[in-house]
Every structure is written in C-alpha cells, then in structure tokens.
Amino acid sequence: ERREDAMTAAAALLLALCITTSANAATVFSVGDGDTIRVSEGSSRLTIRLACIDAPETSQRPWGGRSRGLLKQLTPVGSEVTLRVQTTDRYGRTVAELLNHRGNVNQLMVEAGQAFAYRRYLRQCDSQRYLQLESEAKRQGTGIWSVGPSGITRPWDYRRGRRNSASSARSSRKSVS
C-alpha cells in the first residue's frame, strides 16, 4: 500500500512538474518560519508564503522552531523548488505550493504534523488531500498533535489573541494618560 502511495505521489509530482512552466523554477536563499521562505527566481527575489497551510508562529515555542526546522530540512538554502503560484497576499508575498524532489512541500509539512491545513484558504488547493494528511497526523499524534487530539493553539487563533491583547494594552495606556 505504501509503495502504491509513493508511486501515486511520484506520478502526481511528475504531472505537476510537467504542467508547471520552468519559469517558476526558483532557488531557496532563506527560510523565515514554518510557512515562509525567500527564493530567487531569475534576477527577482521573492518572499513565498506557503499556500494551503498555516504553521505555528515562531513565538509558539517549541512548535514554531520545530516547524521552521522541518521546512529548512525540506528546502535547504541553495536547493531548487518549483512554485505553483496561487496569488499574492496583502503583504505582497507570493502565495504558492512548493514542489521539489521530495514532493509537495506544503503537504509534507502537514503530514509531519508541523503545520495545519489552513481551512480558510483551501479553495485553490487539493483540500481533501490536505485534510486527509492532517487527520492522519492527528490520529498518529505527530508533531503539533502530540499534545493531544485537539493539538496546539491554531496559529490564526494565536495571532488574533496577540492582536487583541496588544490593542487592549494600548487602550489601557491611553486611559491612564
């Protein structure tokens, strides 16, 4: 069964590489966190936000560091990736799925329990596959799921909590003045 899965994954990657133009080939020059890398594509330097996933924030210790560590392992500096570009986000980052000799890097992050399937942005993705990979990582208690079946605080909830506490702190400072 694993061999069939590997063959299916290899066939899907080969098909994706055939569909993707070589103009989307890029070289990794840094990894920011578990869902952001910087690449050079020709003479351009781009910040890539990995599509379809949301990885723990760096300050979500130890999970953010572990997620970043896996992404660095999967996409080492100097390695080649193919970008399956979806859009540009509000911060000007290119949102893309990354493909390399290991497969779909975004899916590998979810499969390893180092990122969540980002339900809010799964429309342009193989949502069924991402959710299946997340469910399997959860079932196995891998990575972010090792703390229990509910996993860690979702990065989107963590960010919202930080924004809310920061605005509360600003409001209380203003009322003291």
Please give a structural write-up.
With 177 residues, this protein is α+β, with helices and mostly antiparallel strands. Helix content is 41%, strand content 25%. α3 runs parallel beside α4. It is globular.
What's this model, at a glance?
The protein has helices at residues 2-19, 63-74, 105-111, 127-140, 155-176; strands spanning 25-33, 36-41, 44-50, 53-54, 80-88, 94-100, 103-104, 116-117. The chain has 177 residues and is an alpha+beta fold.
Low-confidence stretches: 18-23
Characterize the biggest β-sheet: 5 strands, mixed, barrel
Task: Assess the beta-strand content as a share of residues.
Answer: 15-25%
Write down the oligomeric state: single chain
Strand order of the largest sheet: 1-2-3-6-5
| Terminal Cα span | 67 Å
Radius of gyration over C-alpha positions, nearest whole angstrom? 18 Å
Which percent bin holds the helix content? 40-55%
Helix vs. strand class: alpha+beta
Shape descriptor: globular
Mean pLDDT: 87
- Number of H- or I-type helical stretches: 5
List the secondary-structure elements in sequence, H or E. HEEEEHEEEHEHH
* Number of β-strand runs: 8
